[in-house]
Amino acid sequence: MGNEIPRTVRGFAETLVRIGVVTQEEATAALAEVTRLGMDLDEEYDDTDELTFLLDYCDTGFVVPEKSVGDREDAYAGLLHRAAACSGGSVVVDDVELLEDGDGDDILHFRRNGRSMWWRVEHTTVSARYMDLGAIAEGIGDLVPGDDDPRCFYQLDEDPCDAQWLLLTPGQAAALEEYGLPMADAAANRVRNRLPTAEPETSDWYREDDRLHASEESRRRLDEWLAPMDTALERWRTAHLPDGFPFDHSRDSLSALERLVLERFDGPAAPRDEFFEGAVRYVGETALRLWPCRWTYRHSDDGSPVFTNEPVIRSNAPDAFAGECSPAYELRTLVRHRKPGGLVSSLEGVGEAVDDYRQALRARAR
User: Fold this and answer.
1) Which of 10, 30, 107, 226 could link 57 by a cystine bridge, Cβ 3.0 to 4.6 Å?
2) What is the pLDDT of residues 34-74, one digit of tens each?
3) What is the rounded distance in angstroms from the CA atom of residue 12 to the CA atom of residue 21?
4) pTM, two decimal places
5) Where does residue 32 rank: exposed (0-12), middle (13-18), buried (19+ CB within 10 A)?
6) How many Cβ atoms from other residues are within 10 Å of residue 128's Cβ?
């Protein structure tokens, strides 16, 4: 395709129409405006990237400016509204606030179709003209239409400054890349538009939200893990714990469990036997009683992301705050390094994440 279609303004417009990025009417109006400016529609360009200026005249996509005009909160609001507009009305953004949490860190809040979204943003300069381009690139997937709509945001090059973003199907992105445009990776579609029916901010709400976003295999494996929980723990207690073990889901019981694990396994690795599985269950169930959190499971075919394919404890807080802890990982680390005290410390991080979230809520209320 790249050899057949000329790398001209007219050829680029025809490509955009053919793959459905813009309508014929939008392309015609854009070409008329470019002609009015005295540009040659049939001039060949060596660098296809130079043709992307036409998108500005088609009123499609949006640009992340290197520097903003006005104050920072207004700049973020304008950016979010432009990104939402790409959906054609299926994504609505409102209630944009740039807040400072109790530690003096900035955090951005907005509502997407009624759901509160939070982005952690860093501003290394006191100038109000600079936004966090990294946070924008990482979070822009929150603005895709979601559900079964295949469109994702694609950045036209890898430079975050004055970056052009388009909402495209994978097929449209492939066609533009074949035409010669440098396409960065897509911002993943991780959005489900349904909201949980449980009472907000309860464990039931977060568990229901997990299921809305999880894959079928992740849900199945989590159910398999949770279903026998009480029976498995009682069997573990009877078969493997010594008399006098404080089976009360307290912090002290976690310290006692660490000592027991170190006595049982001399390292460097802990086998995944019945005792180890029971210990994983006990650590997680203790966390549920001490901090606002829940069990989660993320299945991955290749297992490359951190904490996939094993049960994980995750704090009851939005993703921008949420801390997570893998009991299996913590126990393996204990056996490998033989330094007790890590269980409570790691699980406390799950609770601290909820504290951070509550600080942000208080900042919104001020």
Assistant:
1) 30
2) 999 999 999 999 888 888 889 888 878 898 887 776 788 99
3) 11
4) 0.85
5) exposed
6) 16
